[in-house]
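Example: Ferric reductase NAD binding domain-containing protein.
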Amino acid sequence: MVQALNHAKHGVDILSGTRVRTHFARPNWKEVFSSIARKHPNSTVGVFYCGIPTVAKELKKQAQEMSQKTSTRFEFHKEHF
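Written out as structure tokens, the predicted fold is:
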């Protein structure tokens, strides 16, 4: 709550010191993909991810589902470093 109030008043994130507000927990991926699909109909969007397999599985699933439900085609790519 303090973080939100500070950001609203000063426009600066209390944790990072930047204008971008820090959000905790995982994003609502369905909401993120839906928003991108609305903004980019009939387009191909690359989804690149490098990290733990659990999140990769979730992102791949969302990419496949949203590609079937919308005119936007999401191509998932898992990066390995």
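Residues 2-78 form one domain.
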